Amino acid sequence: MLRITNSMMISRAMRNQSNNLRNMDKWNNDLNAMTHLHKPSDDPVKVGRTLRLQSEITLSTQYSDNLDSAKAWLETTESSLSEVNKVMQRIREITVQGANGVLKEDDKSKISQEIGQLREHLITVSNQTYTGRHIFSGYRSDLAFTNSDGTYNENANTLGVSYQSMEYKVGVSQNLQVNYTGDRIFGSSYSEATITGKRLEFANDPATNPELTTQFDFGITLDIQKRKIDPATGKPVLDGSGNPVIEDGPLSITVNSDPTKKYKNGDIESVVNDLNAQIKAPPNPAGYEDKVKFVVDKDRIAIVSRDYDIETTVVEVNAAGVPTDKLGKSGLETKPNVEATQPLKPMFEMLTKLQGLLEAGDSEQISNMLSDVDAHLQNILQISGEIGAKINMVDIMQTRMDETLISTKDLLSKTRDTNMGEAIMNLSIAEAVYKSSLAVSARIIQPTLVDFLR
After folding, report:
1. What pLDDT score does 295 carry?
2. pLDDT in tens, 167-205
3. Residue burial 241-252, b: 16+ Cβ < 10 Å; e: rest
């Protein structure tokens, strides 16, 4: 028979007391921390699920914030376009009055002055900002789009290129463009002809190696010509055989990269500046640097033209000096036979011309200007409709995102949060057990010699 000693009873009683205290501490900790998951070993499956749900909530919250910012940007643009529409409607009304041949010269002069004031107001609207960023300046949102005289800021002018989009990430694989460049709203003399395809690739990643350099060795030939456009219809004028009448050209412009020059990683702008400098250099024909330009298109290069059709030919010289029909590391690839579309005439230039016609009292030409005013009104209405549709879509997405956040948070709560009723009951039970163990232990542990000496 096993002999039970006093020390064994005391040791076992202390061990059981410790277990009961630890059990009571667990439920107390669950109540204080409001979760029953304190370390991965508590429940590996639930801990993994909790981490995934927390990640989803963080992403959804950021997407929700992005949707709020996107909506605010779009509403700012919508408000600006509403103002432009009101001004252009007024301009149309007084232009119709100005085209009336029975008006006195003094009346037409007053109409001209009003158009000048409305023009100044439109310049102010074209420089509208949202949180300190100019909404019509494309990537250069730190710069005003329009100068005080109504000309476009050359450093902010997007030159008719449609790529300068400001986007918010509103989903795992969904981006929302919120901006409209100034030339889309107020017109431009330029239209886009893009060198599409591969990127202008640098030898090293610009993000991780910004100081490393790349050299390029390629040439680009631009075959351009300008078709004669009927100012009344905006369509090409045809000859007796039905072919477009060529007003200028055809002619060729050739530019070449400097194979000895080293460009810092990602510095596409320097490449573009060097190409543009060659457009006006001999032996290229003079006077075309404002008619054809290279511009930065994100990590690509695009060409913009002023009413010219462009056909591009790109040639790379490899290490052996043998030309190839497209570039490798330099990343340019041509899109042949790009025709320049007739762009919307710049609004401020149109209004300046209208002012001059009113001062001169040319009723016939003033009447002809109505088609340009109507074109701008139609453009504003079209873009306003697009923005309205985007705002409605953002509202729908925001509602769905809010519902997703609520359901995800609810699932997270069920996965990790403490069940208050159950925890309080278990804590009370654990406390009762612990107190009982204390009472039992007090009776088991025998009195010591000191107790007898008292």
Report:
1. 75
2. 888 888 888 888 888 888 888 766 544 444 334 556 555
3. eeebeeeeeeee
Sign of CA dihedral 340, 344, 349, 354: positive
Contact 310, 292 (CB under 8 A): yes
Residue 262 DSSP SS3 = coil
DSSP-derived 3-state class of residue 119: helix
Per the prediction, the chain carries an average pLDDT of: 77
Residue type, position 394, single letter:
V
- pLDDT tens-digit series, residues 66-93: 999 999 999 999 999 999 999 999 999 9
C-alpha span between 443 and 216 (Å, rounded): 93
Residues 192/301, Cβ–Cβ less than 8 Å:
no
CA distance 187 to 145: 12
Q: Can you read off the two tokens belonging to residue 202?
A: 């640098």
Question: In 3D, which of 366, 359, 382, 403 has the Cα closest to residue 116?
Answer: 359
- Compute the 3-state secondary structure of the chain and give helix, strand, coil in percent, each to the nearest 5: 50, 15, 35
The upper half-sphere exposure of residue 451, i.e. CA atoms within 13 Å in the direction of its Cβ, equals: 4
Read off φ and ψ for residue 222, nearest 5 degrees: -110, 115
Q: Which helix (H) or strand (E) holds 150?
A: none
Q: What is the CA angle 87-92-96, rounded to 5?
A: 150
Task: List the one residue out of 164, 109, 90 whose CA is nearest residue 133.
Answer: 164
